[in-house]
């Protein structure tokens, strides 16, 4: 057996786009999520770093890109992990900061990328058995001015919280403890607000078009 073989196998999925790709309009989760390790699971430290080298780095992905590192046999969806708990950490900057200081924001992203590699090795390498056992998967979401790290787990939150703090090297950071149900409810509210804003824009556009037609008709009558 390889001296650096992991005790469990792992997979990497992703959603989103990178480079100059265009965002596809896909609502179905199973069609939206892509399995990178379909040919072979990650079984060793060497394979982990080969996958890391092959995937798009943080600086190349567009806003909305997410990485899903999960144990083999665990599918990263709310429906497949209904009983999981989630620890969530966010690093967020102001939009103005990202616009005015793109190099600094890029540096922040690169530093988090390195810390997440350490977190993956801590998890997969089984140096902390309780952490390896409890953790089902790690989700990393890259947004325009925010990086979100979610740890999906079962069991004690402390088995997961301390290794997360250790890997991110941040003692005073705020970490939320949620359930999958909490995340679904929050996502549903965001979807409702987004839909409401879209309806408002559509209604406003419709009113403007109607006003334009009325103005044109009024102008024609005067002529």
Automatic annotation (TrEMBL):
Query: What is the top-level taxon of the source organism?
Result: Eukaryota
Instruction: Return any one Pfam family short name.
Output: IF4E
Q: A single GO molecular function, which one?
A: translation initiation factor activity
- In this chain, composition skew of type Basic and acidic residues spans 179-188, 196-215
Task: Supply the alphabetized keyword list.
Answer: Initiation factor, Protein biosynthesis
InterPro entries per the UniProt record, alphabetical:
TIF_eIF4e-like, TIF_eIF_4E
Q: Which organism is it from?
A: Hexamita inflata
> What ranges does the record give for the region Disordered, renumbered to this chain?
179-223
Could you tell me what this protein is called?
A: Eukaryotic initiation factor 4E
Gene3D superfamilies in alphabetical order: RNA Cap, Translation Initiation Factor Eif4e
